[in-house]
Write a structure and sequence with these properties.
Number of strands: 3
Largest sheet: 3 strands, parallel
Shape: globular
Strand order of the largest sheet: 1-2-3
Helix content: 40-55%
Structural class: mainly alpha
């Protein structure tokens, strides 16, 4: 599925004057460990100025998210970003999906872009952003945290105790009132 998306993205980048050097799968989406895939992906960066790394929870994990409230990226994706950062190249992390994962990995990226899963339209939009033809000025509809899983567990406990109720003190208002620090606050 991603190979078709990559060919559309590559075509759009070329039309923007950006020459892609290739694609390597750096992880298996359904695995938590893909160490054998990291080295070939990192080696591809030798001829690149900038590295695009596509990350995300995947459709199945996003569906499970509504029940489990877990936002951690799989360990194989975090390891890939860390390995790419060690190359000294500019790393742009593109989060594919509808949810912002735990943002602890972003210290290894020069930029983070949230993009929906999609086809040629999304590929063209990403190419436009990377080429500077479009400035993504959208605002986050939810907050992004370094320790999202811990915060969600605290909220779940508050709901079970009856302390956290639906009303005006949920979401970003609860975060502000409780002095929790969001790395990427609502509206960022």
């Amino acid at each position: 599925e991603f190979i078709g998306f990559y060919s559309k993205l590559s075509e759009s980048l070329k039309m923007s004057g950006i020459t892609p050097v290739g694609y390597k799968a750096g992880y298996k989406l359904d695995d938590d460990i893909s160490e054998d895939m990291i080295t070939p992906a990192v080696n591809l960066t030798n001829t690149a100025d900038t590295v695009l790394v596509f990350l995300g929870l995947g459709k199945q994990r996003e569906e499970e998210l509504s029940q489990s409230q877990r936002l951690m990226l799989p360990a194989n994706q975090v390891a890939l970003v860390s390995s790419l950062a060690k190359t000294g190249k500019r790393v742009i992390a593109i989060i594919c999906g509808t949810r912002l994962p735990n943002m602890g990995f972003d210290t290894d990226a020069h930029a983070v872009l949230l993009a929906p899963n999609g086809g040629s339209g999304v590929a063209r939009a990403i190419a436009d952003v990377l080429a500077g033809r479009y400035n993504p000025s959208g605002r986050l509809a939810y907050a992004g945290y370094d320790n999202a899983d811990v915060i969600f567990k605290q909220i779940q406990k508050r709901k079970q105790k009856g302390v956290q109720k639906i009303g005006k003190m949920v979401g970003y208002r609860y975060t502000d009132a409780s002095k929790k620090v969001a790395k990427y606050p609502f509206g960022h």
